[in-house]
Design a protein that fits this description.
Layout (H helix, E strand, L loop, with lengths): L3 H7 L5 H14 L3 H7 L5 H12 L12 H11 L3 H7 L1 E6 L9 H4 L8 E6 L5 H10 L5 E4 L2 H16 L11 H8 L2 H17 L3 E6 L3 E8 L2 E9 L3 H11 L11 E9 L2 E12 L2 E10 L7 H4 L3 H11 L4 E6 L6 H12 L6 E5 L10 E4 L8 H8 L6 E4 L5 H12 L3 E6 L7 H7 L4 H7 E13 L5 E2 L4 H8 L13 E2 L11 E12 L3 H7 L4 H9 L6 H10 L5 H8 L2
Parallel strand pairs: 2-3, 10-14, 10-15, 11-12, 11-13, 13-14
Antiparallel strand pairs: 1-2, 4-5, 4-9, 5-6, 7-8, 8-9, 15-18, 16-17
Helix pairs in contact: 2-3, 10-12, 11-12, 16-17, 19-21, 20-23, 21-22, 23-24
Length: about 575
């Protein structure tokens, strides 16, 4: 029979190299091999628990079947045990009727049945000798043991700890960096942060927000653009968690008075991830926002991003220009960078010289020279762009046009034969032209070099598991039919969000892009030369078949990808 480590390798859960590192860590920190692998980020705890359950023949306790806090407090009083003793063994105990099958009804766990009671013990390591011995002393009948993940146990252990939180003194802000580092290296802190990352991956979260308050701190996760609370914990634990996150991202853990930014590559449940962290000093401590960027070998195709066929044709025509400026607009987190990277990949044919200046570089493009902005040493967008022009490029990508100097250099680069692709923050695609004019670019120059503008937003995609088909309102059908580029003779598939386990009861899973793409030429060029406002530019564009983001969203709602309410939430209309 295979030993535990060999079984993990055979199942493909860890590599032989990970196993060797785990054994070294096991001997250094004095824990089980499985826990060492979890703390190294080589193994997901859910996979570890599944293997242990198979080997030991024990049921796995789900979060929904955990006992309530009052039941556990009563068990502590009856057994004369303490919260510290349970936390040290990462276990929860309670008295209730026997449970015949794993994941039995929650009522039985909380003593709702009249059947004879039994001692129940849930732990990360139910085979712990001290736990087994104590269970024999606490109750004459054999205890029923369960395996549980740290995250599952924390739902009760944090509640027990919170009862004493008001009596504990907050860790002083003046603690030196050595003490903070020691706290960050403690096993419960490592487990908390690892569980946070694992949950973020499970939920497909793009960002994690860690927010301190007077008597607690809250962890929230942004999933498909919406923030949702994951965990609340006592304020006394915050400084250690804060220090752990800052250590992982390469920040100064002793500096709490000034904002900081950090970036690091980490391993979570066997996956390589790029971690970007921003801290901001607030009244009750540092607010942290963590962005998780998965390392992937392939960019999604434009159609996977939600670009319609007619828009894809327009984008292909725009990047076919040998020179000029192409602008992509939208708020932070709307997918602009992903769209631009996809366009650069299409241009990256081995013949063109492509240079980018970004803040930060979010994805490594093979064959493309990418420059990271470092404002603290004077390497700004404008400075990087000036240097790029001496590198004989064919295509230049500027992460963002933020100031008049960058705008003017970008236009000059386009005038001298380069294709420039960049982003600006505006509410619509056609607002990009007035924005560059406001930054000091001359009207006649902008009209000559601007090849096209693209606007985009992200809306949540209706869950394929629970999305329910509905009959579209006649008014919506009429508006969708009037949208430029609307498909003819196709059956509508309007849907509404319902909610199920697959989508976390939100009704949505994943996101899809809404786009507006407009080549600039003829009448639009003349309108830009005359410095016409955005409203007039839009009228000119609509006369040429321009489809607004709301129109694109209406077509995607009609096709069943999203809902009309979701489109209105994001773009209005």
């Amino acid at each position: 029979m295979l030993d535990f480590g060999s079984l993990l390798v055979e199942r493909g859960l860890v590599s032989p190299r990970d196993l060797d590192e785990g054994k070294r860590a096991q001997s250094e920190i004095g824990c089980s091999l499985g826990l060492a692998l979890v703390r190294l980020g080589s193994l997901a705890e859910t996979d570890l628990v599944a293997i242990m359950a198979e080997m030991w023949g024990l049921p796995v306790l789900a979060s929904a079947d955990m006992p309530n806090l009052a039941t556990v407090v009563e068990a502590l009083q009856r057994t004369h045990s303490t919260v510290e003793w349970l936390k040290a063994r990462e276990a929860v105990i309670w008295f209730a009727p026997p449970i015949q099958t794993p994941g039995g009804p929650s009522g039985a766990l909380n003593g709702a049945s009249d059947a004879p009671e039994r001692l129940h013990v849930a732990a990360r390591n139910p085979m712990d000798a001290s736990l087994q011995e104590a269970a024999e002393q606490w109750h004459p009948e054999p205890a029923q043991f369960y395996l549980a993940t740290q995250q599952t146990l924390e739902t009760v252990l944090v509640g027990l700890d919170a009862e004493r939180a008001a009596e504990e003194e907050a860790i002083a802000d003046s603690q030196d960096s050595r003490r903070l580092r020691e706290m960050a290296e403690e096993a419960p802190v490592i487990d908390f942060v690892n569980a946070m990352f694992a949950e973020a991956i499970t939920r497909r979260a793009s960002d994690i927000h860690v927010e301190p308050f007077e008597d607690r701190f809250i962890v929230r996760m942004r999933v498909d653009g919406i923030l949702d609370q994951w965990r609340m914990a006592p304020r006394s634990q915050f400084d250690a968690v804060d220090s752990r996150i800052k250590l992982l991202s390469g920040m100064d853990i002793a500096e709490r008075r000034l904002p900081q930014d950090g970036r690091q590559s980490i391993r979570i449940a066997g996956r390589e991830m790029d971690l970007r962290v921003s801290t901001l000093p607030t009244t009750w401590g540092e607010s942290l926002v963590l962005r998780l960027l998965g390392k992937t070998s392939a960019l999604p195709e434009l159609r996977q991003l939600g670009v319609a066929e007619d828009h894809q044709l327009l984008l292909d025509q725009l990047i076919a220009h040998p020179n000029g400026v192409i602008l992509v607009t939208g708020p932070t987190g709307s997918g602009k960078t992903t769209t631009i990277y996809r366009l650069l990949s299409q241009l990256n044919d081995g013949v063109r010289k492509i240079l980018t200046v970004e803040d930060p570089v979010e994805f490594a493009l093979p064959g493309v020279m990418q420059v990271q902005v470092k404002s603290e040493i004077g390497l700004t967008f404008a400075a990087g762009l000036r240097s790029m022009l001496r590198q004989d490029p064919d295509v230049i990508m500027i992460g963002e046009i933020r100031d008049s100097e960058t705008a003017r250099i970008a236009v000059q680069a386009a005038l001298t034969g380069h294709l420039v692709i960049s982003t600006v923050h505006t509410n619509s695609a056609l607002a990009a032209a007035p924005r560059l004019l406001d930054l000091g670019v001359e009207e006649y120059l902008l009209a000559d070099v601007l090849r096209g503008v693209v606007g985009q937003r992200l809306v949540r995609r209706v869950c394929d598991t629970c999305g329910r088909r509905v009959v579209g309102e006649p008014e919506l059908e009429a508006r969708a039919a009037a949208v430029p580029g609307a498909p003819r003779n196709t059956e509508p598939l309007w849907r509404e969000a319902v909610g199920c386990a697959a989508c976390g009861s939100t009704g949505f899973r994943g996101r899809v892009g809404l786009y507006e793409v407009m080549p600039v030429g003829g009448e639009l060029q003349a309108a830009i030369r005359q410095r016409r406002p955005e409203l007039e530019l839009t009228r000119v564009a609509e006369s040429q078949g321009y489809r607004t983001m709301f129109g694109d969203g209406l077509l995607k709602a009609r096709a069943g990808h999203t809902t009309v309410d979701e489109v209105r939430r994001v773009v209005g209309g």
